[in-house]
UniProtKB/TrEMBL annotation, chains A, B, C, D:
InterPro entries: Gamma-glu_amide_hydrolase, GATase_2_dom, Ntn_hydrolases_N. Residues 2-337 form the Glutamine amidotransferase type-2 domain. GO terms for molecular function: omega peptidase activity. Gene3D superfamilies: Glutamine Phosphoribosylpyrophosphate, subunit 1, domain 1. GO terms for cellular component: cytoplasm; glutathione hydrolase complex. Transmembrane segments: none annotated. This is Glutamine amidotransferase type-2 domain-containing protein. Pfam families: GATase_6.
Amino acid sequence: MCRWFAYIGEEPILLEDILIKPKHSIIKQIDVHFLPYLHVIYDPHLYRKKFSSGVASDEHGPNHFTNVDGFGLGYYTGVAAEFNNDNINRPCVYKNVRPPLNDLNLISLCAHTSSKCVFAHIRAATRLSPIVETNNHPFVFGRYLFMHNGSVANFLNIKIALVQKLSENAYRNIFGTTDTEHVAALFFTHLGNDWDTELPMENLKNAMIKTLQDILTLIQESAKDMDETLPQSNLNFAVTDSCQLLATRFSSMDEFEPPSLYYSTTAGPTFNRKFPDHPDGKEVGKEATQATHNHGKHVIVASEPSTYKTKDWYLIPSNSFILIGKDLNVVIEKIDL
Amino acid sequence: MCRWFAYIGEEPILLEDILIKPKHSIIKQIDVHFLPYLHVIYDPHLYRKKFSSGVASDEHGPNHFTNVDGFGLGYYTGVAAEFNNDNINRPCVYKNVRPPLNDLNLISLCAHTSSKCVFAHIRAATRLSPIVETNNHPFVFGRYLFMHNGSVANFLNIKIALVQKLSENAYRNIFGTTDTEHVAALFFTHLGNDWDTELPMENLKNAMIKTLQDILTLIQESAKDMDETLPQSNLNFAVTDSCQLLATRFSSMDEFEPPSLYYSTTAGPTFNRKFPDHPDGKEVGKEATQATHNHGKHVIVASEPSTYKTKDWYLIPSNSFILIGKDLNVVIEKIDL
Amino acid sequence: MCRWFAYIGEEPILLEDILIKPKHSIIKQIDVHFLPYLHVIYDPHLYRKKFSSGVASDEHGPNHFTNVDGFGLGYYTGVAAEFNNDNINRPCVYKNVRPPLNDLNLISLCAHTSSKCVFAHIRAATRLSPIVETNNHPFVFGRYLFMHNGSVANFLNIKIALVQKLSENAYRNIFGTTDTEHVAALFFTHLGNDWDTELPMENLKNAMIKTLQDILTLIQESAKDMDETLPQSNLNFAVTDSCQLLATRFSSMDEFEPPSLYYSTTAGPTFNRKFPDHPDGKEVGKEATQATHNHGKHVIVASEPSTYKTKDWYLIPSNSFILIGKDLNVVIEKIDL
Amino acid sequence: MCRWFAYIGEEPILLEDILIKPKHSIIKQIDVHFLPYLHVIYDPHLYRKKFSSGVASDEHGPNHFTNVDGFGLGYYTGVAAEFNNDNINRPCVYKNVRPPLNDLNLISLCAHTSSKCVFAHIRAATRLSPIVETNNHPFVFGRYLFMHNGSVANFLNIKIALVQKLSENAYRNIFGTTDTEHVAALFFTHLGNDWDTELPMENLKNAMIKTLQDILTLIQESAKDMDETLPQSNLNFAVTDSCQLLATRFSSMDEFEPPSLYYSTTAGPTFNRKFPDHPDGKEVGKEATQATHNHGKHVIVASEPSTYKTKDWYLIPSNSFILIGKDLNVVIEKIDL
């Protein structure tokens, strides 16, 4: 299981405040982690759902893979759009296969960079895709970032059929060999050929539904061809164009729980050093220069909560969309395929 | 011979415009380069100066080392100072031992980052210091960046004596093994213990003079102890605190020409995509959105010119300071030890 | 243009002696090189052939790309076969994207390892395949190594059609995104499903002929579909199973000269420190412990000669096979498609 | 706490069999590990010794650092000595800052290389020394390898005084910035100036005693100068010249237990695929081709046992030498300073 973290808001955030400083920040989520206690409250036992291998649970420990297989970061600065005098707000991307805690470039970058939209991802590779930078998430398509926690079952069996569904542009935008990047190419094929202008959320949602349908169909056909039982896929995706964000918490089989995915619309000030409180707890001193109520509207979507305040975090229900529009309002919708 | 490039100005510059785009930008200066033709005009032959090994000249080719031994970049964003609500404007630093042209992180970072003060350096290592990131320039001391083209002769012979001259703070700020980082620590020892508040240029100049004197004395004593002839050192240093910049073009022996070092107070618009003209020549189309005269005051100091307009570049005389104050005025002064 | 070097013989060679020590060894072939003077004698002018971009020639300089895009090394030790008590002699492979001259691991490995069969490759990437280790040559398929100098024209246009020709095993053995690794998978599809037992040279030759035919057909069909003029491909391949070696010097269009490719059956002792003479010239002192005539039979095939003795090197004619059997005899054959 | 593993024997071992294959091999010891159950039997509680931070114990979990800060491997092939026709058997060294489990070069190297003497080390860096290859253990001095688990207390305070004790040769053989490499240089200063010919074990022991005395004295003097209480150092060192091996399990303060260190003279066949049994347990099938009693004499010294057979492993008492001579006999001696 990988893990990812996404921030979008009208309040710029210092990358260090969300990615490095918290005791349970994503770059420290290499093994045992902050207890995903809300996950239990949601209670898979009650719903009698099973966990597929590697999925967070309090019973088996939250993660039995070690996330040391590459870190990736995407964020928007708006600088290129200003210098190019267009409105094409493409992301800056940083990827490395070294453990992120040892990466002095990453640490310096995070200490000196703020953004209103950030994607971060830490990978636990399956043995199918090698550990090289081009396989690290998030992936860039025009102004979009795309990342994933989970895996597409039997990906190599459906890869050729999937590739044949891709538009020329999407196909040529693939630089690595992961299932995720190919799924992203399929999503951007369904989204159309213009990845630089802003599109309505409805378009993103429709493209994602078609993408999920295609993947499930391809897997079914492949299992049928090979006379195998249908395998399970975990498909927690996130995609953004800098001003809106769509994510999914999705398991291809109803009897399995997908990996955890939380959101928060209130944790921002706790992360941000300008405001009171600290992600590791109230007792950690912090000199606030602004009042909490002055913090801008924002949403965080993440595999695991990384502040101590559990009441700030909501578990997204299984097989649901979380849709965050330009107004930064959150809509949770059942995924209906 | 290494090479370095420094920009300071009131006009923010897109890193891509100075470091990546020009045909002769520093990351492309790995072997044969833009002809340092002004260097010839200055005419070492006339002054009968010799070139030490590796120094640029039109006679032997501008550079007989290959600069593939590590790239480093330092730039100021002001973001940390804003979030910390102090005035401590420390630099962001990025270093890598991969060839910079292949470094997708660097290329993305430069495409999405602008700054008013940038240091960049490409290394041709002597065999004494290994090729690891901690040996890449520029080096950070508090709010300062420090870099070097050249080498301190017989550095290992004087290292212990040099280290004993260092303040506790400067000593503990050394993370690699290069001559340059040790010289920097000596400079910051002479500068005093506060590396976070702005100091008058006079302090920087005095610290540099003491540093040069110390190095020359240490080398002389070592040569005497070992009964060797005095070796030659090339000491083209640059130091900045984000709002002023001091650099040296210095050879320890008068009969040798130091490596080339140029400055320009007018090349900025040619680099900057917002303004007319292009570093590779007028014929390269560029859609300017602003008039040249609107470009802010700025100074570039660099081992080699990297725009086609030779009249924009001045060779700094041997054994001189270039001092760029907060007003961005340029003063050239003979170094008088 | 990339470059490659292959050694096969009954005399083990210290890797340092072929890859590191010579002034013109492959790891030093990053830009201007040892004059491929035999190439001129062969005289493209006489035959009025053209050079495609990047091909060695004395007229335009031997190489106008800079080979800093990744080094790869494959060699056979026989150790695994001994410990596993089978006869499956698979290769050890080392790949890195750092400049090889700076790579202390590579330098140490070469100083302490000998082998009877070695493949080495230095890459000048086209912009289509990213610079990651999985894209470095040579590629491993069972007991085989495969490498390439040149490029498959319009590879992205034919990739899907090519992939559909692959056997399941060959397809699953692809870990990167280069044209070469896909061509290799096609070759090993034609070779059959057993890549661990030794096969007759005839099988290798037939598989290579089918591979070349397939590639040319795919390119023709793609050009026709897209209504484009037929592009030129350079296909200098090498493949070995540790005891025999097949290589091609091939241009897809007769009017173009393929990249240079030489062989030698006598240069071994000059490389080997146990024997008299030195790759950089007679004047370089070397204490031989054995007489030249005691050196075992061997063949070297390489993009460029890397000893000073031009009479030891033969340019392989355009569009030819070089076939080196278990008896280490050399056969040059016209490639007849 | 780091961890290290050493093998010396007359039976060559495939690197994969000791470093990669076992479930608890050193490259998998990044966090929670094989229970060091003998450690408990030795019973720190009985002796009422304390554990310093990071030391293995069953009470607090075996290791609360994560060992992802660089892997190093040294082994002897004898190849260079054969080609150079001297008897100078220097080691081959491989170091990387990537997680070793992701390192395809390391995995291939281990699959195809055997040796009679191997040192391997995995690092959990203190924040004082950066994570760069030159700081990875083991360190090479002539024909010797040197590695360390633990740390020298207040190293930066004693570094200059330590450096002044070094011979010119030892000083010039330092390429990184760790405490360990400096201690090694002190050891090789005491050993004398010839690091290429074999020396009696007595010389190694005396050099180590002087080194430990020097370190303790330097730390005492520094603590006194600074009016600080004496800090504790863990000094589990290992050194070899390929044919003999000396290691220490040492804590500078008697009331603290040093990190665990085990040895085995019988575990070799269990690791080695040629012989019956498997490091992960009898139930793991393995086709032996040789009988256990045919395995050559050997000794393993390691921070943690990595086979399931606890009776094969002995905990070395605190503050002791383990001395393994050319006859491969083991002598345990109290360290008497």
